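Can anyone check this?
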Amino acid sequence: MIEILNQVFEIEQKSERENFNNFKRNIRRIYHELDELGYYLKNPLGERYTEERTDVNASLENDIHSEMKITKVLKPIIYKREEDGVFIVQKGIVIVT
């Protein structure tokens, strides 16, 4: 299931880069169905990064400083809702500058 979620995320990213707006509705529908199964993704693009973050694995392009931001997302954060809570099933893989 995680690989399917990663592929949907990648398709969404490529369609946005190439301006293929025809797929937005289909991608939203897929996300809805995945949500019904208890899965959802988070794209942390643009979020502030600190060394204390545990939901992503980061590659730093510069030295550590206080204004670091996530500038590229290679893989999203994937969560799974279950009866006893919400769990991370995949940490995001990101580039930070």
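Reply from J.R.: I decoded it. The chain is about 30% helix and 35% strand.
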